[in-house]
Amino acid sequence: MKTVSMERDTVHVFAPATVANMVCGFDVLGFALYDPGDEVIIRRVEEPGVRLVNITGDDGRLPRQVSKNTVSASVVSFLQHIGRTNIGIDMELHKRMPIGSGLGSSAASTVAGLYAINTLLGSPLSRRELLPFAMQGEELACGHGHADNVAPALLGGITLIRGYDPVDVVALPVPPALHASVVFPHVDVPTRDARQMIRTKVALKDAVTQWGNIAGLVAGLFTDDYALIGRSMQDVLIEPTRAILIPEFYEMRRLAMEAGALSFGISGSGPSVFAFARSAEQATYVTSIIQTHLTEQGIGSNGYVSGINMEGPRELRD
Amino acid sequence: MKTVSMERDTVHVFAPATVANMVCGFDVLGFALYDPGDEVIIRRVEEPGVRLVNITGDDGRLPRQVSKNTVSASVVSFLQHIGRTNIGIDMELHKRMPIGSGLGSSAASTVAGLYAINTLLGSPLSRRELLPFAMQGEELACGHGHADNVAPALLGGITLIRGYDPVDVVALPVPPALHASVVFPHVDVPTRDARQMIRTKVALKDAVTQWGNIAGLVAGLFTDDYALIGRSMQDVLIEPTRAILIPEFYEMRRLAMEAGALSFGISGSGPSVFAFARSAEQATYVTSIIQTHLTEQGIGSNGYVSGINMEGPRELRD
């Protein structure tokens, strides 16, 4: 039974950053963070049409045109789908997270916008029904309509994209003590370039290693087996190529693992890195030693510590 | 705590046939059947040394030399490991399943032998500790020491070989209604040839599809989600090549899926095929329509219907 909600005049939404790939699940796994994330405010106005009236926190890097900005463009697609193109909407996007960080920046913005417009109109669609619109937004932002960031940003938790024909999202369980340490080193690795470096052919034996590992990771998540989770999170295919673009990658990994992290790897296409830890304290420690090391090398960074965000987007009451 | 058991004079063991790969888990997944399987009888005798005194059911195809036959060779390795080479052993191997069928024939024999000698000597090793000896047997029989047949034959249930360095076997849960339909068509596909046909390089996008599917299958097994199990069991990498060697493969699949099977695919390197069904009745029906179709095409076959064997090898009390 669908809950019928009232339409509203203003909605303010936060949607989370996400870590895609999770080391052994290239293009199919991802999870949501509590921090950082983006905010979108949508106001209903008299004049029909969708307008982007304010964007902050992007240093002018994002498109201002409604049809080119992923947030407004996906809201327009949503309104066309539900037959409400006559409505008047003013949108604000407040970036509270770095762009080009490998933390699903465009996905966080797009999901915040879609969740906001859906809430404003009384939730005509379910969260899962918003996914295709969010994937369109990714297509516009990154040149490919993958769901490995938008699915966890929208649904929360750890998500598996089993397949795309049709899109099949499986929610995976989250062991209670699991925490993430995330560090964004201030070096520039555009997603498009990072994807282009990856070989289109891989050795079958490496692929077998990879799918043994992803199967082990899923089993570890279902059984709260932290050791199995840790030893499954290895990447013999993508990481060796992408790590080249990330200064100090192997030293950061050594430090994280020495500090007791379960696993360490690249977040999405980088340059952000993440580690899984068994407690908030351990994740805090891992973040701090990685950031200290980067500072010593003259590299600035943002550091985060977060549990796995089971909620996805949430409304902020002003 | 290790249970200390008495040494015995005679042990008679059955070990099961197994289905490796499970469509989307090439070289890493497998499960055990109740039927068919092989039997080994081990008797303690005065004269030191290991002897193969009787082999039946193999049409003379298996080596009679102790060092060349996988069953006796792995028993010798085991005795060397535990320092009991002075013992006298007469072994009988009774093949109760077809050789070269893709149903783990060598694994069933080897596991039966190892389980029998271990039981005879009061179980000095655990089942998991027998695995390396069984893998040595596979090396001798097939030219590669994979564990995807010996692990389920030895441990029962559905097993994942997460990795080989060191070997890491994860037991996966088995949804209660799951049953297997298995058909061995009487055509010859030697394992070595079937492996050699497989390309050593694969497209990354196909590998991504494959690991999305294996992750979905593992999640489906943990949640008793039969529909997810079914739609995850697809193989875009290996099956297209191996299916060429199996007459009527696509017609058998069409018939099985029409009859309500959850999934259909090649068992190991073939030519046996298997389907998952949601009940013994459905599995029985699927086996019968596949065998009927093969008969109409002039192809003989063996048909089996089995739940997932959770036990692995078992002692037969004569």
Automatic annotation (TrEMBL), chains A, B:
Q: What is its EC number?
A: 2.7.1.39
Q: Which residues bind ATP?
A: P98, I99, G100, S101, G102, L103, G104, S105, S106, A107, A108
The residues the entry assigns to the signal sequence are none
Alphabetized GO MF terms: ATP binding; homoserine kinase activity
Top-level taxon in the UniProt lineage: Bacteria
Please list the residue ranges annotated as the GHMP kinase N-terminal domain: 72-157
| Nucleus keyword on record | no
Q: So what family is this one in?
A: Belongs to the GHMP kinase family. Homoserine kinase subfamily.
Per its record, how is this protein called by name?
Homoserine kinase
